[in-house]
Design goal:
By secondary structure, the protein is of the alpha/beta class. The protein has 14 helices and 10 strands. The strands form 2 sheets. It has an 8-stranded mixed β-sheet with strand order 1-2-4-3-5-6-9-10, sandwiched between helices. Strands 7-8 form a two-stranded parallel sheet. The radius of gyration is 24 Å and the shape is globular.
């Protein structure tokens, strides 16, 4: 829908002002409808070899071309699709499949790290929660009202007896480039939680109505996602009752505690610390051991499994949330990440020089557009008051070549620069896992003209020299590194990545997969042949293909 007001980022768009905006949008829609007739005739008459992909039906060809032309309107006229005001309440009576809930802001004791920004206030967050009626196994909201009577709820003893019925909770972060879509059940991206609930893969899914770049800059979206995550963790903490029940649970808790500690520690790797810096290694080990002990304790008391789900820009937000959880070590980690065509290198819109810009691949087979100037304008608005160097933070662009070079060295960054999903076989995975790392020498970035902010530093915090204000989790004084000497994806949860080999994000997503493989993350990739971006939320794509992909996704979830 057309926005009711023009936001700051739309000021410099060529067709964002009336009457040019209306004229451009109308002519674009009209000419696109005319082109539909041309495409129908063209792909009917010509052999399949003339289609973008020979396997595509005429419907698929028209759909991709049509969507690409419409998406162009977004970048040149600033039109946004399917959005709603995140501060506005939605009546549950108007909802058919979900219930609307307000989630309190992030608790005071969790306001640390990247989400602590004095210029971005913490706010309550709206959630569209599937299903409409809260399942009996789901406990009441902490300190809130319940939709069930007390007799309908299960006490801790009943929960213990229902050991095989541990609820699987999903947190869905929708895509849309941080400027489109919504968590509302009628939004196009809501096909994802709708299908997962229809197939009974999850007990409950919370679709987060996080703040888009029109409403607040980074890290507002991470704040909102963190608030929902903290809420779910608090709601599902075990509350023991009864001596015998408590003793049995304590025994199970101790076993789970030990298992969690083992999993957290077995893949810990300190890539950002020189081997001869024993003092730093000892300090990092002590800090990590303390965090592992705390995380193991809270994880053992958590009576649910949590999976973070994100498509496109929502996948980017999932990665940022998972990184904040790991870096701060205050909350138990999620049990899995489900990434559907995740955006993981927005810094692509900011080359070192305009002449260095390299278009992303598959321009003819994907509906995503790749115009650098409008993309850079949107990303700059997303950063808001933060320095432009923040675009290269692992929280924003974890798969950028600059970030990979800082953690693993130029050789590794080059080895995954052009990696495709077709090349990712078992031999390639072993190569990535065993490849030696040689972190880049920390050097300041190229100064930004007119910027009063400090330049970004590559390497561990020690690389910043006397500037002790720098931190991997700082926005004002960032450094490309992870806290406590951890590698880029050390201690990340198991991950499932769904990716089409015809989409423009293929290279950056494969760099992400390569880095995760390098750090020992359990990564499961689902290759969708000839598929464009975010195929699971495209109703007009081949339903047989989508069903097969859904089957693989649901099998992965059930194994967790």
């Amino acid at each position: 829908m057309l926005p009711k007001k023009r936001y700051a980022y739309q000021t410099d768009m060529p067709y964002a002002r009336e009457p040019l905006k209306s004229i451009y949008v109308v002519q674009r829609m009209f000419t696109t409808l005319v082109m539909v007739l041309w495409w129908a005739v063209k792909y009917t008459v010509l052999p399949r070899s003339y289609r973008p992909r020979p396997s595509w039906s005429i419907k698929c060809c028209i759909s991709v071309n049509f969507t690409r032309r419409i998406y162009r309107v977004t970048e040149l006229a600033g039109v946004t699709w399917g959005t709603r005001n995140p501060d506005k309440e939605c009546s549950t009576r108007s909802l058919k499949y979900t219930r609307f809930e307000w989630i309190d802001p992030v608790p005071e004791d969790l306001r640390t790290g990247i989400i602590a920004d004095p210029q971005v206030p913490f706010k309550r967050v709206g959630c569209f929660t599937w299903p409409k009626e809260r399942p009996k196994i789901i406990p009441a909201c902490p300190g809130g009202s319940s939709t069930h009577s007390g007799d309908d709820l299960m006490d801790s003893g009943e929960l213990e007896e229902a050991a095989g019925d541990v609820p699987v909770i999903g947190i869905f972060l929708h895509g849309g480039g941080y400027c489109h879509m919504s968590g509302h059940e009628k939004a196009p991206t809501s096909q994802i939680p709708a299908r997962l609930m229809k197939d009974k893969v999850f007990t409950e899914i919370h679709a987060v109505e996080y703040r888009l770049l029109q409403h607040a800059p980074f890290p507002a979206a991470v704040q909102d996602a963190a608030a929902v995550y903290a809420y779910i963790v608090r709601r599902h903490q075990r509350h023991h009752s009864g001596t015998s029940s408590s003793s049995r649970l304590n025994s199970n808790t101790q076993a789970e505690d030990n298992e969690t500690k083992r999993k957290l520690g077995e893949n810990t790797e300190y890539l950002s610390v020189e081997e001869n810096n024993y003092q730093a290694q000892a300090r990092h080990k002590k800090e990590n051991d303390a965090i592992h002990e705390h995380v193991a304790e809270v994880t053992a008391n958590l009576n649910c499994k949590i999976i973070l789900i994100g498509d496109s820009a929502g996948g980017n937000l999932v990665l940022a949330l998972a990184r904040w959880i790991r870096d701060e070590g205050l909350l138990p980690p999620p049990d899995g990440l489900l990434l559907l065509s995740p955006s993981c290198d927005p810094s692509h819109a900011f080359p070192e020089a305009p002449s260095c810009y390299i278009p992303r691949p598959h321009a003819d087979t994907d509906y995503l557009v790749d115009t650098p100037e409008p993309r850079a304008l949107l990303q700059r608005t997303f950063l808001g008051h933060n320095p432009i160097e923040t675009m290269h933070s692992p929280y924003v662009s974890p798969a950028s070549s600059r970030v990979l070079a800082a953690f693993y060295g130029e050789a590794f960054a080059s080895s995954v620069a052009d990696l495709t999903i077709a090349q990712l076989d078992d031999n390639q995975r072993r190569f990535l896992r065993n490849m030696a790392s040689a972190p880049a020498t920390p050097v300041p970035s190229t100064p930004v003209l007119g910027s009063s902010q400090s330049n970004l530093v590559l390497g561990p915090p020690e690389a910043a020299g006397e500037d002790q204000g720098r931190s991997p989790t700082s926005l004002a004084h960032p450094v490309i590194a992870s806290p406590r000497g951890l590698s880029l994806f050390t201690e990340f949860p198991r991950t499932c990545v769904v990716l089409g080999d015809a989409e423009r994000l293929e290279r950056e997503v494969m760099r992400l997969v390569g880095a995760m493989e390098r750090d020992g993350v359990d990564v499961h990739t689902i290759w969708v042949a000839d598929a464009p971006h975010d195929v699971l939320q495209m109703m007009w794509w081949d339903e047989g293909v989508r069903d097969r992909v859904w089957g693989q996704v649901e099998e992965w979830v059930r194994r967790i």
